[in-house]
């Protein structure tokens, strides 16, 4: 049964306890799978990419995670990049990179001009990577 709600993006939050709790949610699992299958943006920050992997959402994708969680990921994983965008998947290491992560999401949804404009408004030097 499909969800009656369509989201432009779904991003799982980090924190080990929070990610573990989210990993047990059948509803979130369903939403994330629908998100991926429909070609909409999904992602995770900090330790939550581990739950994306658990649900098969990192298959054939490159991702990153918090240094304490990246070793729990298998496949095409990088610990060198703060943020990884692979198609409609966006992952990031954690709190230190949250503004850059936000700008990457804005860029993905609304384009480079909007991301640059918002970055200037918060005095953040944004460069597309």
TrEMBL record:
The record ties this protein, via InterPro entries, to: Class_I_gatase-like (IPR029062), DJ-1/PfpI (IPR002818), Prot/Nucl_acid_deglycase (IPR050325)
Mention any one GO cellular component term assigned to this protein in its UniProt record.
Answer: cytoplasm
DJ-1/PfpI domain boundaries: 6-107
**GO BP field:** glyoxal metabolic process
Pfam family name, one:
DJ-1_PfpI
Q: What is this protein called?
A: DJ-1/PfpI domain-containing protein
Which species expresses this protein natively?
Vanilla planifolia (Vanilla)
């Amino acid at each position: 049964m499909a969800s009656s709600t369509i989201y432009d993006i779904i991003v799982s939050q980090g924190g080990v306890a929070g990610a573990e709790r989210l990993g047990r949610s059948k509803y979130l699992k369903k939403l994330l799978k629908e998100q991926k299958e429909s070609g909409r943006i999904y992602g995770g920050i900090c330790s939550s990419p581990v739950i994306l992997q658990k649900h098969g959402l990192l298959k054939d994708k490159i991702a990153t995670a918090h240094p304490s969680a990246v070793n729990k990921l298998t496949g095409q994983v990088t610990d060198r990049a703060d943020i990884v965008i692979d198609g409609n998947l966006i992952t990031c290491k954690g709190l230190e990179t949250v503004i850059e992560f936000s700008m990457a999401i804005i860029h993905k949804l609304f384009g480079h001009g909007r991301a640059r404009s918002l970055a200037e408004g918060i005095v953040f030097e944004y460069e597309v990577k």
